[in-house]
């Protein structure tokens, strides 16, 4: 009987194993038969690569650099002959060679061209020449050491954080003042020509209708820092340029500085300069203004021997702090020969003791000098044709409002 009992235990255990196995088969997924796992295909880059130069773009689209690229003699690097093109340089450099032409150019009149993030240098002509293009956007580009200009751009151009350095002519050249150019945080340094230069293809535009420059810097250029017509400038700086810091026609400048140039500002055709400053310009001339206005600004000149401000017809200097501490004998503010309808009002004017705070040339007429605080004297050699308080050497002045002398 013990044997039978043992056999019964074995039968019971076997039945239990069958039940457990059946339950597990129901709980666990069926063993996969030979299957191949599939993954979604890797998306391809929809942009077209640029791997060598020269390269011509004839179709709209997006293009990108694969690495640094070298130019060839007798050719431009990239020619953009299509609308709606974006080029991402991916931080790489386009290097020109002896006899090369432009770095990036066009032979047509394309629209909507965007170029970003790269360096262009050493080309036999200009780094970027898109004068014939329209609606251009440039971002984080550096154009250096080219034989002509860093950038030559057509109408409706937008530039952000671009640099033109050590080019053989103008740093940034803009054509057609009648169309908008917007430049911010751009730098023109050590170019053999103006830093920023615009050319009008038609009549002089209305003030500040062509575009704007914001927080831009022009330094050490062998020309003017800025030579612009019809622009608005805000927070821009010019220093150590061979000629003027700013030459402005029908423009507006606010919060700008001109230091250690040959001369500071040259303003004409209704230009307004407000809340700006000059210091230590080489010939001592902070501003030459013709038919323009200088308001609420600080001008401090200690070098050279020129007048700090020279005024032409229809000009106004108002609410300014004007100081001359150079070694010359020119007046601090001089109204130029033949000038008419000038106003010098509400300023603080300090001289160097060698000449007058304000001087009106004998041929000046219909000018008014009022409500100023002055150091030293005012001289009105044209007499009764002007309205000047009697704090000067001439005896023929009139006194509509007194100037205060300290």
Any overview of this molecule?
- This protein is mainly beta and 406 residues long.
- The strands form 2 sheets. The protein has a 39-stranded parallel sheet that branches.
In short:
By secondary structure, the chain is mainly beta. It is built from 1 helix and 42 strands.
What's the helix and strand layout?
Elements lengths: L1 H26 L20 E3 L4 E3 L3 E5 L3 E2 L7 E3 L4 E4 L4 E3 L8 E2 L5 E11 L6 E17 L6 E10 L2 E3 L6 E4 L5 E4 L2 E3 L6 E4 L11 E4 L2 E3 L6 E4 L1 E4 L2 E3 L4 E6 L2 E3 L2 E3 L3 E6 L3 E3 L2 E3 L7 E3 L3 E3 L2 E4 L7 E3 L4 E3 L2 E4 L8 E3 L7 E3 L2 E3 L7 E3 L7 E3 L2 E2 L3 E3 L6 E2 L15 E2 L1
Parallel strand pairs: 1-3, 2-5, 3-6, 4-7, 5-8, 6-9, 7-9, 9-10, 10-11, 10-12, 11-13, 11-14, 12-15, 13-16, 14-17, 15-18, 16-19, 17-20, 18-21, 19-22, 20-23, 21-24, 22-25, 23-26, 24-27, 25-28, 26-29, 27-30, 28-31, 29-32, 30-33, 31-34, 32-35, 33-36, 34-37, 35-38, 36-39, 37-40, 38-41, 39-42
């Amino acid at each position: 009987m013990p044997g039978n009992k043992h056999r019964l235990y074995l039968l019971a255990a076997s039945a239990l194993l069958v039940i457990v196995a059946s339950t597990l088969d129901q709980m666990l997924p069926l063993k996969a038969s030979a299957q191949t796992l599939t993954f979604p295909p890797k998306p391809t880059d929809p942009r077209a690569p640029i791997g060598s130069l020269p390269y011509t773009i004839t179709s709209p689209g997006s293009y990108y650099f694969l690495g640094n690229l070298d130019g060839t003699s007798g050719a431009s690097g990239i020619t953009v002959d299509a609308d709606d093109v974006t080029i991402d340089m991916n931080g790489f450099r386009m290097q020109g060679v002896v006899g090369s032409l432009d770095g990036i150019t066009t032979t047509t009149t394309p629209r909507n061209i965007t170029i970003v993030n790269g360096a262009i240098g050493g080309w036999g002509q200009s780094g970027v020449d898109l004068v014939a293009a329209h609606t251009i956007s440039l971002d984080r580009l550096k154009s250096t050491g080219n034989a002509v200009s860093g950038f030559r751009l057509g109408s409706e151009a937008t530039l952000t954080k671009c640099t033109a350095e050590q080019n053989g002519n103008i740093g940034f050249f803009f054509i057609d003042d009648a169309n908008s150019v917007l430049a911010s945080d751009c730098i023109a340094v050590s170019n053999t020509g103006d830093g920023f230069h615009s050319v009008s293809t038609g009549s002089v535009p209305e003030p500040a209708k062509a575009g704007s420059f914001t927080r831009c810097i022009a330094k050490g250029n062998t020309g003017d820092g800025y030579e612009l017509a019809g622009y608005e400038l805000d927070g821009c700086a010019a220093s150590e340029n061979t000629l003027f810091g700013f030459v402005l026609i029908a423009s507006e400048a606010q919060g700008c500085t001109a230091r250690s140039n040959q001369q500071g500002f040259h303003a004409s055709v209704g230009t307004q300069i407000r809340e700006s400053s000059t210091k230590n310009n080489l010939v001592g001339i902070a501003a030459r203004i013709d038919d323009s206005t200088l308001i609420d600004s600080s001008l401090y000149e200690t070098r050279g021997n020129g007048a700090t401000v020279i005024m032409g017809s229809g000009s106004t200097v108002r609410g300014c702090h004007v100081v001359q501490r150079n070694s010359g004998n020119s007046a601090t503010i001089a109204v130029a020969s033949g000038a008419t309808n000038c106003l010098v009002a509400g300023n603080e004017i300090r001289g160097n003791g060698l000449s007058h705070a304000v001087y009106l040339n004998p041929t000046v007429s219909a000018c008014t000098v009022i409500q100023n605080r002055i150091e030293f004297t005012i001289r009105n050699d044209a007499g009764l044709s002007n309205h000047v308080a009697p704090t000067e050497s001439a005896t023929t002045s009139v006194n509509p409002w007194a100037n205060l002398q300290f």
